[in-house]
Amino acid sequence: MEIVPRGSPADMEAPPDARASEPVSSSADGRPGGTSPGGSPRRTVQASVNDLPDLTGRLIKEGLHEEYLQYRARYLMWRQGGASGAVGEVTELGTTRRQSPEAYLHELWHPTPQKFDFFYTVSYWVAVVGVVGAMILTFVNFAPLVHKPGKLHATVLLRIDFVGDFFFTLSTYLSYFELINAPETGRVRYIFPDWGPIRERVNLESVVGVVVYLLAMLVWDTACVTRLMPVELSPLAAIVFVKLPIAIGGLGFFVGGFCEVIHNWDRSWRKLEWWISVLNALAGFLFLVGGGLGPFLPAAVGSAFGSACFALGLVVYTTTSALLIVMWRSNDFGLTLLRQLNATLRAGAQHVSISPTVDGVFIRHDTGFPRPSQTDAAGQARDRRGSGQAGSRIGRLSTRGVAFLVLYCWLFAAGIMNTLAAWFLATGPSSVALTMFSDVLWLFVAAIVLVIHSSLTSVPNQQPYRLAMLAMRGTLVLATVHQTLIFARWLENLRHPAWWSA
């Protein structure tokens, strides 16, 4: 990393900043300057360069500005003695990097630093939002097993169930969003992709798995929204709009988990993605059994059977979503259905990105590095916004950091459930205001912390940064304990029907 001030010798030696060239006159002895035959002073080289047209806007319009900046950065590094040989020299022939086909994956999947940032951010939110949704839905399906729902009880649980379904649907959509924008097509796509480039790079089971997960959640949401409506459904309507969508959704989750197993079947059982795929397939099977049998069994048995299957499956999904954070920590941005993406940073490729500063430009080198195993990889995740030294490996998100991320997800989930419970169970306006203010406050704090972690994985190991981080963690741990106690209090009251009718 280096700061190159404007007007410095390095900047003067660099190629002209995207300017066209034109001949510069010289004196009789070959040097620039001097006088013309007519007696007028000849223009200096610097004056001629300053008069050249600025082509920066044209480069940006043609989409070549980033390539020019990378070229200029490499040129400056070469002029300052920072080059170690060009790729293709005899010294590198026969090396592992030249022989391995994975050496070109980085350029294929991460053609620009912006693409790297895209995969980094989206995969983070796939994992985090999935953890939050699974935590909320786990409670919703365990609660009926604690106490038979009353009218108000069911109202609260249905609202919480709707929020949990929303987060789970958002997680599956973000996986779809990552898939359809994996190839560099020049613009961001949200719903309708260009399947041609996707089929060239992505395996069939990956496409099927991601799409089926999203469709399964959308069908599942149909049943959730239907149960929220204040209408009494006929037996036929209940089958069409509630029982059948739940069964189809369970089948979709099983198919998605099966696709994950196929995609990672050739991986060693010691690899994390292998275990996540198998566990997701198990959770999908539980959803298939609960959704396929539970709604069609007698009411006395079917409700408890379905809730038990869904609750166990959601415990598994909560675990695997937390493990996805571990994969993200290791730069495995493809998670379990885009494994090609996980291999890109094992090839040792490099990116150079440049940002303007007050004094000049900030040059950041993102250097890939080989990772011998998944276990070693977990300790070598790079900080995209770290100190900037080439090849630096500071900024790894530790195992403790992953545990705190899961803790913040629970704080966010508990804040949502406590807020909804306070809204429906408060005894008066003042009670609603006081109770909800605390819950909503910590809900927003947890959301802000999760957003910060999406771009910052570590802080410098020096004061006052370390003290601030420790103070933040301590405060959020206390907030989590507080929100959990509130959650446990009204969860315990599920056992007392009189409390619900109050």
From TrEMBL:
It comes from Alexandrium monilatum. Keywords: Membrane, Transmembrane, Transmembrane helix. Residues 1-48, 369-393 are annotated as: Disordered. The chain crosses the membrane at residues 118-142, 162-181, 202-220, 240-262, 274-297, 303-328, 402-426, 432-456, 468-491. This is Uncharacterized protein.
